[in-house]
Amino acid sequence: MTILALAVTFVVLTVLGMPIAFVIGSACLVALLISGQSLTLLSHFMYIGVDSFVLVAVPMFVLTGEIMLKGRMTGALTDFADVIVGRIRGGMGHTNIAASVFFAGITGSASADTTALGSVLIPTMAEKGYSRAYATAVTIASSVIGPIIPPSLTFVIYAMAVGGVSVGELFLAGIIPGVLVAIALMVMNYRISLARNYEKRTERYSVGFVLTTVRRSLLVLVMPVLIVVGVLSGDFTATEAAAVASIYALVICMVVTRTLKFRELPDVFFSTAKTSSIMFLLLATSSVLSYILATQGVPTMIANSFQAVTDNKYVFLMLMNISLLMIGLVLDLFPAIIIFGPIFAGIAQSYGVDPVQFGVVFCVNLLIGLNTPPVGSGLFLGAAVGKVRLEDLIREVRPFILMEIVVLLILTYVPFLTTTLPRTVMGFFDS
Prior knowledge:
The protein is mainly alpha-helical. The chain is built from 21 helices and no strands.
């Protein structure tokens, strides 16, 4: 009865359009009332959900991204991406995707990628003959690369929720998958651009422009290297790495390039607090939901269901992917990680799945859900940034989601793509 009441409340409030954090909190409140448990458990587990030193990394990484955005460093990354891939058929689409790869090293956030790059590249692509819906679809599809390539808030939250896997290993494991997603999206962009006769550029950049662009972009691209190396070497934790990154961004933008003014800092801090508060509210309410599901025996029911169907690891992985794709349709990224991460990680361990590989597959799967209806936050943000109709955007983004699912299956059944780099690099640092 408790689970039924929780599910019905969740579905009804979601359909009514209530923000997902309040949907989860309200559903948990109803479940506690139905089960007769003390309502103090709501505040208790909300506090437990955010009472972690690791989570200090969240506002620090957000702050880093805000500093770089206000410091107008995204232009250097966009120019750098354009120099590399801009002359291929569908050049601005490729530039958009490649810029997401480089931008991943700044924030590790899909929403920041969509807002920062989309506001610049969507109008530019439209001027060059692309439809606005298509330009927006490329932007939101490539935005999922940000949380895969380090530094990644998604991997930080996953490591905190599940335990037993290091943030540094997940950072390394995300590099190849992120690049694979970018290549897959570029292949689809090339095919569509060829079919629709989109842009094909022949002009060349001057040597001076290329050298200037490379020099400016290196100031930004060195930051993720600094973070990953620092975490792997043990010089600082992921939380301390986030603080180092924010200081580095501040020095670059205020002292080196001087593109960020002191008077702009209050806006930077306010925007950081606003974004972080949304994330923490999601984490807090998700912690309560995780407790309710555990006390109602849901994790055991899910585990028994999988084991009753198959004892084959590869069949389990396929069923897990299907389940997570369905979860991603109705639940936002961070709540899904907090609620289902520990459940599925425990089941995967019983099947002998490598924890690092599983972590990457799990997160990539849920990231695809950012761009799928009915509650995909990437769709609504993209429609707002690109000023396009939601139904047009959904139609244009479908081929790119298909390519991301293909990459997901490759990562699921070719484990060395996610495990080789962490083992090699960690072995080097351990020696």
